[in-house]
Write a structure and sequence with these properties.
By secondary structure, the chain is of the alpha/beta class. The chain is built from 13 helices and 8 strands. It has 2 domains: 240 residues, Alpha/Beta hydrolase fold, catalytic domain (Rossmann fold, 3-Layer(aba) Sandwich); 64 residues, no CATH class.
Length: 339
C-alpha cells in the first residue's frame, strides 16, 4: 500500500510539473497585442496582412511597417516578429506586416519582384494604412532586416510619410554581400584551400552568367552548377543582383537606427556601418547599435548554433531568443520619434 501511495504521489508531481511547464509556455507566447487579419489594397495586387495594435491607451497610434528579408516569409515570420511588435506596442505603435506574394495562398509570386517592386508594395501599404482608423499618419516608419535594406531607402525616398527607418543587418551591395557570405561560410566550416578555390570559381561562373543575361536553362545546358536554384530564383537573382543602396540611402533624410551583429556571416557588418556613417552625416540622424556576439538575426551565436537551445527558447521564452537589449533599443528609438 505504501509503495502504491508513493507511485501515485510521484505521478501527481509529474503531472503538476507538466501542467506548470505548459502554463509557462502559454504565458510566454501571449503578447500584449490586438492582432487582426487585414487585406491591404492599393498596390499591384492585394496583400494578406496582419495589423497588430497596442491593447491600451487612447487616441491614434503610430505605425511600424515591417519589410521582410529574403525568402518566402509569412506575415508573422513564423511568430519571430511578435516580440518586436510587442516592443513597438509598448512605445505606442501598431505594426503592419503581410504574407509575401504567393505565400499562404496570397496572390502573386515574390520571386517575380525587383527591389523597386518591393518598395512600391511598401509605399502602397503605407497609403492603405493611413486610411485606417486609429493610425496616426504623421508617425509612420519602416522596420526591415537583411534584404529589406535595399527596399526601405527606396520607399523612404518615394514617400514623405516615412518618418524613420530601423535597418537590421542590411547589406550595401548585392554582389559584395554575396562574396562576403560565401567566404564567411567557408571559413566557419573550416573549408580547405582547394574547397575555397572551387567554391569561388563556381560563384564567378554564376555571376558571369547573371551579368550576361543568360537564362537558367541556358546556364544549365552549358554545364553550370544550378544546385539549390530554380528557374524562378534564377530570374529573381538576375533581376536584382546589381542592387546597391548607396544612391537611395543618400536621399534618406529621416532618423535611422542601424542594428548589426558582430557574428554575422551573411552581411559584413563593418562595411555596412562604414557606409551608413559616411552617407548619413546629418547630426543625430543615425544611431548604430552593435551586438558583438549576435548573428545575422541578432540572436547570440551560441543560441543560434545550438538547435536544442534555439528550439527550446523559441517555444518556452521567445523574447529571450534575441541579443540582450535588442528589443528595448528599438522601443526607445520609436518612442522618441515625434516628441
Amino acid at each position: 500500500m505504501r509503495r502504491r501511495w508513493w507511485l501515485w504521489g510521484s505521478l501527481l508531481t509529474v503531472v503538476v510539473l507538466l501542467l506548470g511547464a505548459g502554463g509557462w509556455v502559454v504565458y510566454q507566447n501571449e503578447y500584449d497585442l490586438k492582432e487582426e487579419r487585414v487585406t491591404i489594397t492599393g498596390g499591384r495586387q492585394p496583400l494578406n496582412g496582419v495589423l497588430a495594435r497596442p491593447t491600451g491607451g487612447h487616441g491614434p497610434v503610430g505605425l511600424v511597417v515591417f519589410v521582410h528579408g529574403d525568402g518566402a516569409q509569412n506575415a508573422t515570420h513564423d511568430t519571430f516578429y511578435r516580440p518586436m511588435w510587442e516592443a513597438m506596442a509598448k512605445a505606442g505603435y501598431a505594426s503592419l506586416s503581410w504574407d509575401k506574394p504567393g505565400v499562404n495562398g496570397a496572390p502573386g509570386n515574390w520571386l517575380d519582384q525587383s527591389m523597386q517592386d518591393r518598395a512600391d508594395e511598401t509605399v502602397a501599404a503605407i497609403g492603405w494604412a493611413k486610411t485606417q482608423p486609429g493610425i496616426d499618419p504623421t508617425r509612420i516608419g519602416l522596420w526591415g532586416a537583411s534584404q529589406a535594406g535595399w527596399v526601405m531607402p527606396k520607399a523612404a525616398r518615394q514617400s514623405a510619410d516615412v518618418k524613420f527607418v530601423i535597418a537590421v543587418a542590411p547589406a550595401v551591395n548585392w554582389l559584395q554581400q554575396g562574396r562576403y557570405n560565401l567566404l564567411a561560410e567557408l571559413k566557419k566550416r573550416h573549408a580547405t584551400p582547394a574547397e575555397t578555390e572551387a567554391a569561388i570559381a563556381r560563384s564567378d561562373r554564376t555571376l558571369d552568367a547573371l551579368r550576361t543575361g543568360r537564362t537558367f536553362e541556358q546556364y544549365q545546358a552549358a554545364g553550370g552548377d544550378v544546385t539549390g536554384l530554380t528557374p524562378d530564383r534564377w530570374e529573381f537573382n538576375r533581376r536584382n543582383h546589381t542592387s546597391d543602396v548607396t544612391e537611395d540611402l543618400s536621399a534618406v533624410r529621416v532618423p535611422v537606427l542601424l542594428i548589426l551583429g558582430g557574428r554575422d556571416v551573411n552581411v559584413d557588418s563593418d562595411d555596412t556601418e562604414a557606409h551608413y556613417r559616411r552617407i548619413l552625416t546629418t547630426p543625430g540622424q543615425l544611431q548604430v547599435k552593435r551586438h558583438p556576439d549576435a548573428t545575422h538575426n541578432i540572436v547570440p551565436e551560441a543560441i543560434e548554433d545550438s538547435e536544442l537551445r534555439s528550439t527550446f527558447l523559441a517555444i518556452a521564452a521567445p523574447r529571450s531568443l534575441f541579443s540582450p537589449g535588442y528589443l528595448d533599443e528599438q522601443r526607445h528609438f520609436v518612442a522618441a520619434i515625434g516628441r
